[in-house]
Fold:
Amino acid sequence: MSEPRTYPSAPVVLPDRTNELEPTPVDGCLGCLELAKVRDWARAGGDMTTVTDCNVLMARHPDGH
Ligand SMILES: [Zn+2]
Structure:
C-alpha cells in the first residue's frame, strides 16, 4: 500500500515571536537594564501586559542612546 504524494510536505516552522518581540537591552544603559529587570519580574508573575510595556519602552530606547 502506497499513498501517492500529491503535495510535498513542507516542514512546519513556527515563527519564534519571542525573539522578535523582545528587544535586547543595550550594554551599559541603565534604563535598558532596569526595563529588562522589570520585564523578568513581570514575566515570572505572569504579567504579560507589563512585559509588553517594557518591550515597547526598550524598543524605543535606542532613539535616546
Ligand atoms: Zn537604553
